[in-house]
Amino acid sequence: MKEMIQSWIEIILPSLSAKAPELLMFTLSIVIYGVLIFHFYRFVAKRDVFGFNIDRFKRGTESFGAKVFNKFLGLLKYGIVFPFFVFIWFAGFSLMLFFMAAEKTGVSEILIIGVAFVAAIRIASYYDDDLSKDMAKLIPFAFLGIALVDLSFFDRTRIISRIDSIPLFITEIATFFVFIVLLEWALRILLSVKFLFLGVNKKEIVKEELKEQIEEMVDEE
């Protein structure tokens, strides 16, 4: 028995020492990608990307000056900062689709799919956070799944060709960009109208605050 164990050790250890660096690198790559995607899809799927709190907003609108300040702050956030977020989301999903899409799929079609996916996630975020998160993780983890079982889809020539052709679609990209920004503004307006005419459900406030606290605790860990 002792000789058998010793023989197994003599066989396994050289193989392990040879494969360990590759296994470790592969494992760390998957973990790092998973962590990045975890934060990315939660960021895309979050309805109030600026940490908007309904209860604080209502208390802050008592005076005229506070109302003006809140309007200005909202314009600043969703007119200047938010478009930058849109660019990150659109670029991230489009890049993944560049790798995943079939060779016959054109750049224009990929861009349309990318912007439609971002728009769908943003609409879903105003309906239910869990739904928007499930949608937002679909492409990133599908990308990971394909990469794990078929590395041949990383066709460098095809990807470079698609990226090089992006300048030809600048006008189309700008149109998509404006579309998502206007869509978000429309969703924010509809949300404000809902709060104005229907009021704010206290359960919804508590739920929002609990979610924010849980997310902060997760991020800290």
Question: Care to describe what's here?
Answer:
- By secondary structure, the chain is mainly alpha-helical.
- The protein has 2 domains: 1-38; 52-220, no CATH class.
- Helices cover 84% and strands 0% of the residues.
- The protein has 9 helices and no strands.
- Helix 1 (2-45) packs across helix 5 (129-136), helix 3 packs parallel to helix 6 (138-149) and helix 4 (107-127) packs antiparallel against helix 5 (129-136).
- The longest helix has 44 residues, at 2-45.
- The radius of gyration is 24 Å and the shape is globular.
- Residues 53-61 have low confidence and may be disordered.
Write out key terms for the chains shown.
mainly alpha; single chain; 221 residues; 2 domains; 0% strand
Summarize the helices and strands and which ones pair or pack.
Blueprint: H1 2-45, H2 54-59, H3 64-100, H4 107-127, H5 129-136, H6 138-149, H7 156-164, H8 170-198, H9 202-220
Helix pairs in contact: 1-5, 3-4, 3-6, 3-8, 4-5, 4-8
User: What's the SSE pattern?
Assistant: HHHHHHHHH
Tell me the β content. Answer: under 5%
- As for the number of domains, it is 2
Unreliable parts: 53-61
Class of secondary structure makeup: mainly alpha
How far apart are the first and last residues' alpha carbons, in Å? 46 Å
Q: Give the % helix.
A: over 70%
Rg from Cα: 24 Å
**Total number of helical segments?**
9
Shape: globular
Count the strands? Answer: 0
Please summarize what this structure is.
With 221 residues, this protein is an all-alpha fold. It has nine helices and no strands.
